[in-house]
Amino acid sequence: MKRHSKAFWPLLIAALVFYAIVQGLIMTDMLGAYHTNTLIFIAINIILAVSLHLVIGITGQFSIGHAGFMAVGAYLSAIVTMKFDLPFVVAIIVGGLVAALAGLIVGIPSLRLRGDYLAIATLGFAEIIRIIFLNIDYVGGAAGMQVSKMTDWTYTFFFMLITILVIVNFTRSRHGIAALSIREDEIASDAMGINTTYYKVVAFVIGAFFAGVAGALFSHNFYIVLPSQFGFLKSVDILILVVLGGLGSLSGAIISAIFLTLVSTFLQDYPETRMIIYSLVLIIVMLYRPQGLMGTKEITDYFRGWTSKGGKDNGKDTIT
Amino acid sequence: MTMLAVKDIDVYYGNIQALKGVTVTVEEGEIVTLIGANGAGKSTLLKTLSGLLKPKSGSIEFLGNSIAGKPAQGIVKSGISHVPEGRRVFANLTVEENLELGAFLRKDKKGIEADMKKVYDTFPRLLERRKQMSGTLSGGEQQMLAMGRAIMAKPKLLLLDEPSMGLAPLMVKTIFEVVKDINEQGTTILLVEQNANMALSVASRGYVIETGKVVLSGSADELQSSEEVRKAYLGGH
Amino acid sequence: MEIIQQILNGISVGSIYALIALGYTMVYGIIKLINFAHGDVFMLGAFIGFYAITQFQMNFFVALIFSMAITALIGVLIERIAYKRLRNATRIAALITAIGVSLLIEYGFIYIRGAQPEAYPDVFGRQSVSLFGATIDMKAVLILSVSVILMLLLQFIVHKTKTGKAMRAVSHDTEAAKLMGINVDNTISATFAIGSALAGAAGVIFGLYYTKIDPLMGVIPGLKAFVAAVLGGIGIIPGAMVGGLILGLVETFVSAIGFSLWRDAAAFIILILILIFRPSGIFGKNSREKV
Fold first, then answer.
1. 3+ Cβ–Cβ pairs closer than 8 Å linking A and C
2. Which helix (H) or strand (E) holds C224?
3. Above pLDDT 90, what percent of chain A?
4. What CATH number has the domain bearing residue C77?
5. What is the band of C288 on the pLDDT scale with cuts at 50, 70, 90?
6. With contacts defined as CB-CB under 8 Å, which chain B residues touch C182?
7. Minimal Cα–Cα distance from B230 to chain C, Å?
8. Is A touching B (3+ C-beta pairs, cut-off 8 A)?
9. Most exposed: A82, A156, B158, C68, by fewest CB within 10 Å?
10. Of all helices (H) and strands (E), which one includes residue A98?
């Protein structure tokens, strides 16, 4: 079942080494606040991209309301740290859990819908969530809520790692295979006795959980949390990561999260240019490569092809 | 005079070849029928003739002009009308509006009016229901409407796809009488039918199509007496 | 007589939604695309009207027609450039493209002229009439009359003209429409032209009513108009009109009873409820998605 088990340990070790190097650079002040922040942004966007990838790329349920779950995590975690003075880790987990609950509430009714109708329903839910926060005085309404900066590289990195591990494992489990079959042909899956609604809701809830985690990290990175940070445009920001990377490719989502975060950091002072580029990316990808840059392929697929062509391995790998 | 000459056409749905080197001719004034099992390629041939599908190779000449690969609207204009399988009437439009759309490319208002009257004379049922949404008609009435709609284009060649499908025997008889009638008034007809008995009784010639190929052709009498045809399509003994 | 005024306000807002919703519903009916950029065509209509009145000193009605003509052209261009290639794509690919087009119009427009809002010229002043003891703003009367005229005109086009019949035929069965000799591409373009012109008109009267316009003004009314289209039954023209009016009235009512901050949520709650309980809308036949 575990297709990429060979690559798993080397990749995990490489990730931890990368973490340690960055952490070392931060501690020795060799990496400034600006670059650290960019890395944190990249990691948060990877969490968002990977969690939406689970919903869109794996189960094929088109959600354009991911920012709504992110908002739930952002606000709930802020309440936990700011109003109850509890530790940040607790806040992140509470944020994720309440977002997951929101995912359940949204998912059960709307996942009966398909395609563009589902997309619009998720958009509607995300707007309702935003308007609810806008109207709650306890969290500051339109003026927002003060939040202390607690997000750092360590928190972000490890939650990113957990997100990736959980979603990779889910994808390879029986659950994941059932979910994949829904993406390929929902009606046939139904006919084969797969409880499509159950798997769709599970994927949706897990996706919402990690969107909530990302929201928690996001709000504690900024000093303030505002309803306007989680509008439709934020959902589009997340959507584009999955669309560009490939609908169905986890590594594609990660790569495009890294790439597009860098692009938007460079274009920070030119928000219109950034949006124009984003919109052109959406249009051009859909017109010329609707499956996204990587389609459903993973980066390790390319790597495997490369090594076997290069003749460096003993040939065992090519059989798997 | 040859009205339609289809020569050696290949047609594909994606990667699947639906017609393999089909050659069919229709002379002016004839009723020619295509018989064959479900999925043999009869409807594909009609769709190719009316421009809904494009042949990959081969030629189609209508009245001496090549029409292979031309868009559907150009083909309608040149004088071919296609009554598709399953009637495909515009359910959200009234009977009369459906007939008007049949004459979509015509500009002669008086001629259109006269032809509409003719259609109503042929199918009095349609006159009774002219203001009704065509989705509310019975299957037989929808078939009448689909044929009437095609006639409104004043075609020289009428392509009829399974006009008897799903109809009661009495209605089938009526429809086939009208087919003969339309033909006698000067319209050439290419008829696709699963009901081979009925088809051969009105046609002068026929082609048998199996898995995308013409396997047999001849006059209606020849086909009716052919052992193979009787076994396979006429339920013969 | 507060209530009459509120109802009239609701109808005014509702008829703006209805005008935009018509374009959504017609386009969805014919190519099954949620044209996300439709709200932005509405925005462009408002700006074209604004420039026509302030820069070219056009009379309000001339500006209205001018704006409709240009937005019709814009609608056709959007369809030909971006959507035409997507005829055989999945609905999701089409939806993402439409979101892209929407953002491109918004931010392209901001890039060109900046994000600052404009104050719409007050061409009619503060005239009002008295009716059953209620003071009625002349603008509301004007909006209502323009909307009614345009909707009647639309009904005429759709039911009595050849183009309208072709539009209905294509939306029901594209292939059969081709067999009638109907040029499907031109019919789709005509649908975009008419829908966009209605959105353009809605933009101009929106400017007149709310007096402030900006490049992102199309987002929320666009979404709400889509809700109105779904509410009435997407693809159904009278449905869009009724849906728009209902939505306008509900919103005005929610504001009137003191929940103005919740007003925007009302539309989305309606959307969710209708999608879950009656996805085919008020006027649609209830059928589950076919296999």
1. yes
2. helix C219-232
3. 50
4. 1.10.3470
5. very low
6. 73, 101, 104
7. 34
8. no
9. A82
10. helix A88-110
pLDDT above 50 for C213: yes
Check B88 against C175: CB less than 8 A apart: yes
The C-alpha of C39 sits at a distance from chain A's nearest C-alpha, in angstroms, of 14
pLDDT score for A304: 60
What is the spatial distance between Cα C234 and Cα C239, in angstroms, rounded to a whole number? Answer: 7
Subunit contact B52:C178, Cβ cutoff 8 A: yes
How many other C-beta atoms can be found within 10 angstroms of the C-beta atom of residue A181? 19
Q: pTM (2 decimals)?
A: 0.89
The answer to whether A236 faces chain C, any CB pair under 8 Å, is yes
The string of pLDDT tens digits covering residues A147-205 is: 989 888 999 999 999 999 999 988 888 877 887 887 877 777 777 777 778 888 999 99
CATH of domain B2-232: 3.40.50.300
CB distance B104–C180 less than 8 Å? yes
Nearest CA in chain B to C186: B73
Q: Mean of the per-residue pLDDT values for chain A?
A: 86
- State the average pLDDT over residues C175-195: 96
Q: Residue C186: its chain B contacts at CB < 8 A?
A: none
What is the pLDDT at residue A314?
A: 37
Contact predicate C45/C51, CB 8 Å: no
Q: Which residues of C touch A236 (CB under 8 A)?
A: 99, 103
CA angle in degrees (0–180, nearest 5) for C96-C99-C105:
140
Identify the pLDDT of residue A157.
Answer: 95
In a domain, C182, yes or no: yes
- Residue identified by tokens 């020619």 is B32
Q: Do A286 and C276 touch (CB under 8 A)?
A: no
Contacts of B104 in chain C (CB under 8 A): 162, 166, 180-182
pLDDT tens per residue across span A16-53: 999 989 888 888 888 888 899 999 999 999 999 999 99
Nearest CA in chain C to A141: C261
Contact C82, C104 (CB under 8 A): no
Q: Which residues of chain B have pLDDT under 70?
A: 235-237
Kindly state the DSSP code that residue C257 receives in the 8-state scheme.
T
Q: Is residue A66 part of a domain?
A: yes
Q: Does a structural domain hold residue C287?
A: no
Q: Which residues in chain A have Cβ-Cβ distances shorter than 8 Å to C230? A: 120
Q: How far is CA B76 from the centre of its chain?
A: 13
**What range does the domain containing C111 cover?**
2-277
Nearest beta carbon to residue C100 from set A112, A124, A283:
A283
| Cα torsion through A43, A46, A48, A51, rounded to 10 | -130
ipTM entry: 0.92
Inside any domain, residue C286? no
pLDDT digits (tens, 9 = 90+) for C106-164: 999 999 999 999 999 888 777 777 766 667 778 888 898 999 999 999 999 999 999 99
User: Do the Cβ atoms of C176 and B50 come within 8 Å?
Assistant: no
Q: Is residue C289 part of a domain?
A: no
Determine, yes or no, domain membership for A245.
Answer: no
What DSSP string runs through B51-120? TSS--SEEEEEETTEE-TT--HHHHHHHTEEEE-TT----TTSBHHHHHHHHTTT---HHHHHHHHHHHH
Whether A272 contacts chain C with CB within 8 A: yes
Interface check for C144 against chain A (CB to CB < 8 A): the answer is no
C173–B88: do the CB atoms touch at under 8 Å? yes
Whether the Cβ atoms of residue A104 and residue A78 lie closer than 8 Å to each other: no
Domain enclosing residue A47, as ranges: 31-231
Burial of A223 (0-12, 13-18, 19+ CB in 10 A): exposed
| Inside any domain, residue A244 | no
- Considering only residues 47 to 66 of chain C, which have any Cβ-Cβ distance to chain A shorter than 8 Å? none
Beta bridge partners of B210: B213
| C220 and chain A in contact, CB less than 8 A | no
Chain C nearest-CA residue for B159: C179
Residue A15 belongs to a domain: no
